[in-house]
Write a structure and sequence with these properties.
about 575 residues; alpha/beta; two-stranded antiparallel sheet; about 45% helix; extended; binds adenosine-5'-triphosphate; RNA binding; helicase; nucleotide-binding; Helicase_ATP-bd; ATP binding
Length: about 575
C-alpha cells in the first residue's frame, strides 16, 4: 500500500509542454496573418482597388510577427495572470501589472505602428482625401484593438478547453479509486486437502487403509473399531508416510512437512495421531521423550492419555501425563530417573498442559526433549490464543538444545532447520514435526505464524451436498463452512432476559425432564452461584465442576456424571 505520494521529476513532460506551447504560438501567428490579409483586402476594396504598398505589407507582417512573439513569450504569464487581468485590459483599466515590461513594450509597438502608418499616409496624400485618411486611422485603431483582443480571446478559449497535456500538475495526487486490499491466504491454507465430514456415509474399513501395523489393527478391532472415520483414513497414512524413515530425517535429508487438521468435534481426531505415533515408536530401543502432546485443559489431556494407554498397552512404550493433578515432585519421578551413568527418561510419550510442561522444562533436572520427534498441539486454536508462559518457544529451545548440554547420547545430532547440505546429511538427524489438530483451525496467517510451521499440509473437512443441476442431473457440491455441528447434534436457542435464565433451566430439567445436562457458564463464580440456586430449589441432582474444586473432586464428579448419578 502506498503510504506516501512521491513528487517525481518530470523533465520530459516539461519538454512536451514547451512543444505544445510552440505549436499554439505557431497556430496563433498563422491566424493573425490571415486576419491582417483580410483587413488589407477590405481596405483595398474600400479605397477603390488601390493595392497596398510594399511598406504596408512589411509593417503588417512585422506587427503580426511581433504579436505572435509576444503571444508566445507572454503565454505563460497570461495563463498565470488569469482572465481577470485580460478583462481589465479590454475594458481599458490598468491592471495590477499595467506598468509591467510586457505592457510597456506593447504600448511602444503600438506607437511605432502609428508613426509608420502616418508616414505612409503622408506619402499617399496625393491620391487619398482627408476623409479617407480619417477612416483609415479609425480602421487601424480598430484593427489594433481587435488584434489585442484576438490574442486573449484565443488564449481564453484554450484556457476553457486546455489540451490534456497542459493539465498535468506536477506533484499532484492522482485521483484514481484506491483498490481494496484483498485478503491473501498462503497456498496451503487456501487449497487444503478436503475430507468428507459425513462420517456414517464415508466409513473406511480399517484394513483398506494402507500401512497400519497388524498389531495395531488387532488392537483397533479389540476396541470395537472396524472402520475409520474419513479424517482418520486421510491423516493416519499421511503421518505414517512422513515418518517412513522412523524418527530420522527423510531420504536425502528432507524434513517432513508439518500437518494441520481442521475437523469438527467427534470426527475422530484423537485416533488420527495416536495410531501413527504408536506405530512409529513401536520399534524404539532406548526410552526417550519422542512424542509430546499439549492440550489446554487437564480433562482433555486425561482423555488423550487414556487413548494412548489403550494403544500402547503391551508394547513397552511409556505414556506419562503431566497436568498438575499430581504433585510436582511426583511428576518429576515419573519423568526421569537418576542413574550412575546420568539421567534417563521414563517416558516415550508425554501428554501435558502448557503451564506444567514449561515448569518441568525449566525445573526438572535431566528432563530432555532433544530426541523429540512429534509435537502434537491439540485444540490448536485455544492453544494459539493462550500462549501461556511462551511454552512453545521453550519446547523448541529444549528440543534443539546441544546434546552434551542435556547429557544425552551423541549418536543422533540435531541441528536447527536449514538448507540441506553435504555436512547436514553426514549425521542421522531427528526432525521435529508438528501436528496441529483443531475443530476450527484459524485462517489467520499472523496467528499461525507463531507456530513456525514447516511447509504445512492442511486437512479440512467439508460437507458434500447433492445438488440438482438445471438439466436434472445430480452432482456433489462441497461446502466448506467454518463452523459446523457434529453429526447427530441438534442446536436450538431460547431468547430470554438475564433474570429468567435460571428459571428456564429449571423448566427444562423439571417439566421437560432433561437428563444428563451440562450447563456452561462464563465464569467459575457464575457456575458456583447457579449450582447453589439449583440446589436450593431442590428436585435435581446437581454438581459443580470448575477450577474452584480440587482435581480429585472434579474427577469424582465426572465419573458420577458418566454413570448417570448426576442430572445437571
Ligand atoms: N473409527 C472409529 N470408529 C468408532 N468410533 C470412533 C472411531 N474413532 C473415534 N471414535 C469415537 O468417537 C468419539 C469421538 O472421537 P474423538 O474424541 O477422537 O473426536 P475428536 O475429533 O478428537 O473430538 P474433539 O474435538 O472433541 O476432541 C470417541 O468416543 C471415540 O472413541
Amino acid at each position: 500500500m502506498a503510504l506516501f505520494a512521491v513528487s517525481r521529476y518530470a523533465g520530459e513532460e516539461e519538454d512536451a509542454d514547451d512543444e505544445a506551447q510552440e505549436e499554439r504560438a505557431r497556430v496563433l501567428l498563422e491566424r493573425l496573418r490571415e486576419q491582417a490579409k483580410a483587413r488589407q483586402l477590405r481596405r483595398q476594396q474600400e479605397l477603390g482597388g488601390a493595392g497596398p504598398g510594399p511598406e504596408d505589407e512589411a509593417a503588417e507582417g512585422k506587427k503580426s510577427a511581433e504579436s505572435a512573439a509576444e503571444g508566445r513569450g507572454g503565454l505563460r504569464k497570461e495563463r498565470e495572470g488569469g482572465s481577470a487581468v485580460l478583462k481589465r485590459r479590454r475594458d481599458g483599466e490598468p491592471g495590477p501589472g499595467a506598468d509591467s515590461e510586457g505592457d510597456t513594450e506593447q504600448r511602444e509597438d503600438r506607437s511605432n505602428l502609428k508613426k509608420k502608418s502616418s508616414k505612409k499616409k503622408k506619402r499617399d496624400e496625393g491620391t487619398e482625401g482627408a476623409e479617407a485618411r480619417k477612416k483609415e486611422n479609425s480602421e487601424r485603431a480598430e484593427g489594433n484593438q481587435s488584434t489585442e483582443e484576438e490574442l486573449p480571446s484565443a488564449d481564453l478559449g484554450e484556457e476553457a478547453h486546455p489540451p490534456a497535456s497542459s493539465l498535468a500538475v506536477l506533484g499532484d495526487y492522482d485521483k484514481k479509486p484506491v483498490q481494496k486490499v484483498q485478503p491473501f491466504l498462503p497456498h496451503w491454507l487456501a487449497q487444503p486437502k478436503l475430507v468428507q465430514k459425513r462420517i456414517k456415509e464415508n466409513l473406511i474399513p480399517i484394513r483398506d487403509v494402507p500401512g497400519i501395523h497388524p498389531r495395531l489393527l488387532k488392537k483397533l478391532q479389540m476396541n470395537g473399531i472396524e472402520s475409520f472415520f474419513p479424517v482418520q483414513a486421510e491423516v493416519i497414512p499421511a503421518v505414517l508416510q512422513s515418518a517412513s524413515n522412523g524418527y530420522l530425517l527423510g531420504q536425502g535429508g528432507y524434513r517432513p512437512k508439518d500437518i494441520c487438521v481442521s475437523a469438527p468435534t467427534g470426527s475422530g481426531k484423537t485416533l488420527s495421531f495416536v495410531i501413527p505415533i504408536v506405530q512409529v515408536l513401536l520399534d524404539r530401543v532406548v526410552c526417550q521423550v519422542r512424542a509430546l502432546v499439549v492440550l489446554p485443559t487437564k480433562e482433555l489431556a486425561q482423555q488423550v492419555s487414556k487413548v494412548f494407554n489403550i494403544y500402547t498397552d503391551g508394547t513397552g512404550l511409556k505414556v506419562v501425563l503431566i497436568t498438575g493433578q499430581k504433585s510436582f515432585a511426583k511428576e518429576q519421578e515419573m519423568l526421569v530417573q537418576k542413574k550412575v551413568t546420568g539421567y534417563c527418561s521414563l517416558a516415550d510419550i508425554i501428554v501435558a498442559t502448557p503451564g506444567r510442561l514449561a515448569d518441568h522444562i525449566s525445573k526438572t533436572p535431566g528432563f530432555s526433549l532433544t530426541q523429540l520427534r512429534f509435537l502434537i498441539i491439540d485444540e490448536a486454536d485455544r492453544m494459539i490464543d493462550d500462549m501461556h508462559q511462551n511454552w512453545l518457544n521453550q519446547v523448541v529451545k529444549a528440543a534443539f538444545q546441544a546434546e552434551n548440554e542435556a547429557g544425552s547420547s551423541t549418536l543422533f545430532q540435531r541441528t536447527k532447520p536449514g538448507p540441506v547440505t553435504a555436512a547436514s546429511c553426514c549425521y542421522p538427524q531427528i526432525p521435529l514435526q508438528k501436528l496441529l489438530f483443531s475443530a476450527t483451525l484459524t485462517q489467520d496467517p499472523e496467528k499461525l505464524q507463531q507456530l513456525g510451521l514447516f511447509q504445512p499440509r492442511l486437512f479440512t473437512s467439508v460437507y458434500s451436498e447433492k445438488k440438482t443441476l438445471t438439466d436434472g442431473t445430480e452432482t456433489d457440491q462441497d461446502s466448506e463452512e467454518k463452523y459446523t455441528l457434529p453429526e447427530g447434534l441438534l442446536q436450538s436457542y431460547v431468547p430470554c432476559d438475564l433474570n429468567s435464565k435460571p428459571l428456564l433451566l429449571l423448566h427444562f430439567m423439571l417439566t421437560k425432564k432433561f437428563t444428563r445436562v451440562l450447563c456452561f457458564t462464563n465464569s467459575r463464580e457464575a457456575s458456583h452461584r447457579l449450582f447453589l440456586l439449583v440446589q436450593a430449589f431442590g428436585g435435581i441432582t446437581v454438581a459443580e465442576f470448575s477450577s474452584r474444586l480440587p482435581p480429585n473432586e472434579r474427577q469424582r464428579t465426572m465419573k458420577e456424571f458418566e454413570q448417570g448419578k448426576i442430572q445437571l
